[in-house]
């Protein structure tokens, strides 16, 4: 029996062609679909050899007499693995999409053939991160400020100081795992014996356990409580910026590292100023005479005070004047953006007799 003939491919066929041929024949001959079980196993055997580069080279050189088990344990040739079982139990009553190239890694992860994955006790005990949103005024961005707020979260148990043990009692090494936080189990199946490594159920991966659990936290080392948090918000902060505060998230279990606190900032809209990056924009109305003759007017600034702004003669409506250094501070910097003032000429809706007469005189003069 030639493997290439079984799959209906040439000896120069690519791996992709071999895979496609196998899938097509497997659909046709699978026992669950009324196919020939013997033929199905022969196809599996052929595919497991030809889909493996090293086994394929050995097969091309020596034929079916090569030692399939010599390349790394018992071969997947039907002698040590029942493909019919794997197929039938893995995807019953479903469309077949099983990729046997990944079979070794799949079963390696499942049965621990590829080596044990060690549990990380620090990760197990670490507290969760917390995110909160804080709203501030635009004026608050001018300088560094502090904000206080309360959070209901896990905090370190004050009775046991976080170790989970009742004061006056000892913390003992776990008898089951000898302090490693992991246990091994040897199991026998139709595939042979295999060893699994997992989290110790006795100590839940921590490697030790209190002689007597704390009466307050019941051995967890932390309790739910309100905690007042104070954070510093730097100058120049903008909406959607996030400040990370290490150690202010939830307390970890039994002295584990606390999570981080992520504070997302939202800056309220201002009734006068519009912020774009670190610059501020505003509109100011002026009269026709101020636009024509020029003037000096007071305008507000973000600090809450007022400054003088000079309007040049012959100013047109929509002209923008720049005032340097009156915007928002650059993030964590002493320098600031600019303030841009757009001038709008105000057209009066009602005129007094004197105003109307004066405008008519100007009109007669060509203005």
Topology:
Layout: H1 3-7, H2 15-29, H3 37-50, H4 53-62, H5 83-90, H6 103-111, H7 121-125, E1 130-136, E2 145-156, E3 171-173, E4 182-189, E5 192-199, E6 208-210, E7 222-233, E8 242-245, E9 261-267, E10 274-276, E11 279-286, H8 288-293, E12 295-300, E13 306-311, E14 320-323, E15 339-345, H9 353-364
Parallel strand pairs: 1-9, 11-15
Antiparallel strand pairs: 2-7, 3-6, 4-5, 8-9, 10-11, 12-13, 14-15
Helix pairs in contact: 2-3
Family: Belongs to the DnaJ family.
Main location: cytoplasm
Subunit structure: Homodimer.
What can you see in these coordinates?
With about 375 residues, the chain is of the alpha+beta class. It is built from 9 helices and 15 strands. The strands form 6 sheets. It has a 4-stranded mixed β-sheet with strand order 10-11-15-14. Strands 1-9-8 form a 3-stranded mixed β-sheet, with no helix packed on it. Strands 2-7 form a two-stranded antiparallel ribbon. The longest helix is centred in the N-terminal third of the chain and has 15 residues, at about 15-30. The protein is flat, with a radius of gyration of 39 Å. It is found in: Cytoplasm. One of its GO terms (molecular function) is zinc ion binding. It holds the Pfam family DnaJ_C. Keywords: Chaperone, Cytoplasm, DNA replication, Metal-binding, Repeat, Stress response, Zinc, Zinc-finger.
């Amino acid at each position: 029996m030639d493997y290439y003939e079984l799959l209906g491919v040439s000896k120069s066929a690519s791996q992709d062609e071999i895979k496609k041929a196998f899938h097509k024949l497997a659909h046709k001959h699978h026992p669950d679909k009324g196919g020939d079980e013997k033929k199905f196993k022969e196809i599996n055997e052929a595919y497991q050899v030809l889909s493996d580069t090293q086994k394929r080279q050995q097969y091309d050189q020596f034929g079916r007499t090569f030692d399939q088990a010599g390349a790394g344990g018992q071969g997947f040739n039907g002698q040590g693995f029942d493909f019919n079982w794997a197929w039938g139990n893995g995807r019953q009553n479903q469309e077949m999409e099983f990729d046997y190239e990944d079979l070794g890694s799949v079963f390696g992860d499942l049965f621990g053939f590829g080596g044990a994955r060690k549990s990380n006790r620090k990760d197990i005990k670490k507290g969760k991160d917390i995110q909160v949103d804080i709203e501030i005024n635009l004026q608050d961005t001018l300088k560094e400020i502090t904000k206080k707020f309360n959070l209901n979260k896990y905090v370190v148990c004050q009775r046991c100081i976080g170790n989970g043990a009742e004061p006056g009692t000892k913390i003992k090494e776990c008898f089951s795992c000898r302090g490693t936080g992991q246990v091994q189990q040897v199991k026998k199946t139709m595939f042979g014996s295999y060893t699994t490594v997992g989290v110790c159920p006795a100590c839940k991966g921590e490697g030790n356990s209190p002689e007597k659990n704390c009466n307050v936290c019941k051995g967890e080392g932390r309790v739910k409580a309100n905690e007042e948090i104070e954070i510093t918000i730097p100058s120049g902060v903008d909406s959607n910026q996030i400040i990370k505060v290490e150690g202010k998230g939830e307390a970890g279990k039994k002295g584990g590292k606390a999570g981080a606190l992520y504070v997302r900032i939202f800056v309220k809209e201002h009734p006068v100023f519009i912020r774009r990056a670190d610059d501020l924009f505003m509109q100011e109305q002026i009269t026709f005479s101020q636009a024509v003759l020029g003037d000096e007017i007071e305008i507000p600034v973000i600090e809450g005070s007022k400054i003088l702004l000079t309007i040049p003669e012959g100013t047109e409506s929509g002209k923008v004047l720049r005032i340097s250094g009156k915007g928002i501070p650059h993030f964590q910097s002493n320098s600031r953006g600019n303030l841009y003032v757009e001038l709008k000429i105000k057209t009066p809706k009602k005129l007094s007799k004197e105003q109307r007469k004066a405008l008519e005189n100007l009109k007669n003069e060509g203005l």
